[in-house]
Amino acid sequence: MEKSQNITRSLFLNASWLFGGKTSASIFSAIQTIIIARMLGISDYGLLVLIIAYVDILNALFDFKVWETATKYIGTFWLKGEKERTSSMIKLSYFVDIASGSLAFLIAIITAKIASKYLIHSPDAYDLICIYAFSLLIDTANLTSDAILRVFDRFKLIAFIVSLNNLIRLALVSIVLYLGMGIQGVLFSFIAASFLGFAVRFWAVTKTLNENGLQRWWKSNMGLVKDQWKSIAWFLSNTGLAGTFNMASDNFLGVLVLGYFSGKEAAAYYKVARSIVKIMTRIMDPLYEAIYPELVRISGLNDLKEFKKLLKSSTITLMKFIVPIAILLLIFSGPIINIVYGEEYHPSSDVLRVLTLAIFITLLTFWINPALLAFGRPGLRNLMVFTSTTIYLVMLFLFVPNYSYLGAAFALLGYAVTNALLAVICFQVSIRREKVRLLKV
Questions:
Q1: Are 125 and 48 in contact (CB under 8 A)?
Q2: Which contacts qualify for 214-222: CB closer than 8 Å, 24 or more apart?
């Protein structure tokens, strides 16, 4: 019992640090969105949303979600006291991250003209895509850096970095918009803030690794984990596919379909609603990031009972925060939109209600993804995500042409319901397999 309490206490202490940092970051991000939306207007803001969505969706397509693989294998090697293999896994993680980011950057540049003409329907989009694509080169290693900091229990440091980065970006965006630099100025501000965030993260990682006797990790031999390459590649490919599919649960795919069928204004209305409802996922994110390395550790100890306790306690805690926020957004969506973004964005209010229901349903089963990864079953997670994403795409193409931004919101609601049902089924299958495995140990 004492062991369970200590694990739960440690988990929520880490989650609290992340929550504090990401809450501050969310506030800065929300203010930034409000400033951009108000100062650019619906048309230009919609164009900016489409530019970001296109580049970020390319990033999602080529991103291997290395942080999840890095967390599992770096954490496992470190738990076993294998310092040299830990260093090798760190080097491998950065190598894959940088390679995937560079590939996404090249694809973005090559396809920019096609996307601006046929997808975004704006000749101005070409230069803007090329500018924003540079963020892929800068941000590419940040997720691996954060994974390393999580493994070594540096959650307080992560919270500080995330908060500082968003504050710097808010300041830069505010300055360029005040100076009348428009969309280009905003994108250059994003890139500058990304560079500063990368520099601070890399300093933090270097300091952390030096303190743990992992100096000169970049000189390590990646061949030391050669016996694990097959399992790492399998895990990496599955998490990469899941990342590609999960772009459906973000706003990128919905925004691009809206931009194609309904134009920049519809994309702006949808994005505004998504930016408000994001406050719910911001509460979940710290808990996800804190619980995953802990689940990896408990899974490695074959303690299935403790595993279930942790999932239950974390879900109950999350709902204490989420339920009041969801009720508030459902009741006061109209006034919130009008006061925060202005009456010109009032059509977003109905979208906000539907998206609130969708995100609430998604958060009910937030723990299933880290649980399946901790069990070493990324393939099962991919089957779940692929099925729900396919259904989501079908609904987008059915609803958006006729119902525009509201149709996109209902498509996401359908995705959330489908994904939640499949998640429960996949988790039950995984638990049964885990029980069988433990009986053989």
A1: no
A2: 214/83, 214/86, 214/87, 214/90, 216/87, 217/87, 217/90, 217/91, 218/91, 218/94, 220/84, 220/87, 220/88, 220/90, 220/91, 221/84, 221/88, 222/88, 222/91, 222/92, 222/95
Q: Look at residue 159 and tell me whether its pLDDT is greater than 70.
A: yes
Separation between Cα atoms, residue 74 and residue 91, nearest integer Å: 10
- The set of residues, in sequence order, having a beta carbon less than 8 Å from that of 44 and lying 6+ positions away, is 182, 183
Going by C-alpha positions, the residue among 351, 369, 353, 357 that lies closest to residue 406 is: 351
Provide the pLDDT for residue 439: 63
Residue 130 pLDDT grade (very low, low, confident, very high; cuts 50, 70, 90):
very high
Give CA angle at 367 (410, 70), nearest 5°. 110
Nearest to 39 by CA among 166, 249, 180, 169: 180
Token pair for residue 16? 């609290």
CA torsion, ordered 307, 311, 317, 318, to nearest 10 deg: 140
Going by C-alpha positions, the residue among 361, 231, 201, 372 that lies closest to residue 291 is 372
Closest Cα partner for 362 from 293, 296, 412?
412
Please state, in angstroms and rounded to a whole number, the distance separating the CA atoms of residues 94 and 143. 9
Q: How many CB atoms lie within 10 A of CB 252?
A: 21
Q: What percent of the chain stands above pLDDT 90?
A: 34
> pLDDT for 181-240, tens place per residue?
999 999 999 999 989 988 999 899 999 999 998 988 888 888 888 888 888 887 777 766
- With contact defined as beta carbons under 8 Å apart, do 21 and 159 qualify? yes
Global pTM reads: 0.75
Question: CA angle 51-56-60, nearest 5°?
Answer: 155
Phi, psi of 303 (to 5 degrees): -105, 85
* Selection from 286, 16, 201 nearest residue 209 by Cα: 201
- Rounded distance between C-alpha atoms, residue 72 and residue 297, angstroms: 9
In the block, residue with structure tokens 């931009």: 259
Rounded Cα distance, 281 and 152, in Å: 24
Please choose, from the candidates 293, 150, 151, 138, the residue with its C-alpha nearest in 3D space to the C-alpha of residue 200.
138
Tokens of 290: 């804190």
Cβ-in-10-Å burial (0-12, 13-18, 19+) of 185 comes to middle
The model's pLDDT over 424-433, given as tens digits with 9 standing for 90+, comes to 888 888 777 7
| Selection from 340, 269, 285 nearest residue 49 by Cα | 269
Map out the domains of the chain as residue ranges.
Answer: 2-440
